[in-house]
Amino acid sequence: MLQYLVAAAFGLPLIGAGTLIATDALAQSPTANPLLAEWTGLYGGVPPWDKVKPELFPVAFEAALAERAADYRRIADDPAAPTFANTFVPMQLAGQRYGRVMTLFGVMTGNMNSPAYQALDREWSPKFAAASDAITFDPKLFARIEAVYKARAKLDAQQQRLVTRTYDSYVRQGAKLNAAQKAQLSAYNQQLASAFSDFSKRLLADEGTAILVPDEAQLAGVPDSVKAVAKAAAAERGQTGWAIVNTRSAVDPVLTFASDRDLREKVWRAFTNRGDNGDANDTNAVIAQIVKLRADRAHLLGFRTHAHWRMQDTMAKTPAAAMDLMLRVWPAAKARVGEEVRDMQAIADKSGAKITIAPWDYRFYQEQVRKARYDLDQAQLKPYFELNNIIQGSLYAANRLYGLNFKEITGTVPVFEPNMRVWHVTDRNGKEVGLFYRDDFARTGKRSGAWANTYRGQRNLAPAQNVLSSNNNNFAKGAKGEPILISLDDAQTLFHEFGHAIHAMLQNVTYPGLAGTPRDFVEYPSQVNEHWLLTRDVLDKYARHYQTGAAMPQALLDKIEASKTFNQGFATTEYLSSAIVDMKLHTVADGIVDPDAFERKALVEIGMPREIVMRHRLPQFNHLFSSDSYSAGYYSYLWSETMDADTFAAFEEAGSPWDKTTADRFAKILLSTGNETDRAEAYRAFRGRDPDVNALLRKRGFPTGAAK
Asked: How many domains are contained in the chain?
């Protein structure tokens, strides 16, 4: 659903038929359809989550699309000569009601995706794509954009950047094509929108399945907290016993701790074969359709491949640059996997297991190696990572670094799920920043993974608006009244997603069109924020034992620090293999692929270790096939991590992770500026040079010589 949120940010377009009906609906909207009402109340107005129902959306879509069409029609038909003031300023403000409606819809399809929302998604996705194209393809509107672009030298720096980026974006989206080409492009976009919806529906169905475990003995070795979650999952499904839901948050603990190898294999196979079972939820045909449509679209737009088209507006610029970074890291990662497997095999042999390490053994035996080498058991850590405490630790770090203040107001504003929490955010001077929402728990209908949304982005252009930001996780809630203990990995995920929220809350831009950053910059602020979780100050105050209240012993932290680069072969290889296959897939010139065969061939070409599977196999690669958002862009995590590692090195060089001068410069130059300046130039302004890839290699424990 990210494509809807992104589209809403830029404003989409002219509907034509149905406008009179939609306009009538809009006239009645304040009482007849709450989705169309202005967001009201304190804090600059808030989303009416308590009034959102799927049956309200069709009328809301029609009305909001019609209003936005009228906004753009007025701009295009303005008889005055085009200027920045009469063309670009109203474009920045066009379609605001549509943006609000699409925010509501996008959040619900990600967080509360019932069959009713899925049906709406299938029906309306192609309509939204057509509406988007109607704006992009409007010759009168583009003529005004082009006229201002040609005279941009008279504008100030921010205005010039907005005009240039808008012009370039319209050209990339087909504004200069002839009428027949535009019709073909719109057909491609509508077909893709339908395919994205189909892929998401199929994957969500597979992730809703579960493996029933009738005998608790099969869960030997699994922590009680994990078993409690599985027990609750079975009860939710009306079953006795324990249910391992087919999502990462449920599967990974079983693969890590269950001593029953047959159960591990069964759970692993179910998880890695999501979307690839030859049944009604199989995604391979949909993926083949998407890849072919993307290639055809790229050719129509004058690009060699989809990857070349997607990467025009990124820091990397070209597929070759992204592949170069990935292939500089890949050999060291693969070599480390060989070392890790040898260590695991030795422990398996010593225990008399009489096995050869297989993919469903990796997490289990890596945990045995961790215990043996570092005397560190992940189960030892969980008592120190009680969810509420870690949330408070993340807020504390944001306050100390950036002066953000958080006051919880849960219960005073609408939410779409009873377990959601909300904070009012102000800056160090007491000025309102906005609200921060958390939706932390897994449930049926919620997509897997963790992500951040911005319900409303900051802008200084009148009328100015504050920020409404959210984090969404899939932590296991467990039994009622029990403390919610999360893993170290989950705690890092929490800090990561909160980094996205910090980025949104510190933004200070005039024009919304200069708010969004390139895909390979987006993950950078969030990855930087992960570093503060394991600072002694945060741990001492917030990572305290949930029963005794004792701070984490220094000896235990020392073990964590000593093991920081442990298992980086696995972590890097499972990620990089997914990123490399993504780029290879989207540089197939004709776009004709058999996804399963392509995946196998690509992995052979790069020498994928047989003991590891891609973090996201193609049949379940939601990043790539639920929208265009991360397609030919999964490399961006590594690109961002190169900057992230080098950025935290700046704090270390300053002598403290809390160094105020460094934090202020980081916030001022990189976090608050959106895309007002080129992000590579902004990074150089902050660090005095380009990022050093060796910082990334050191962080992962690889030899720096691999960066040559």
From this structure: 4
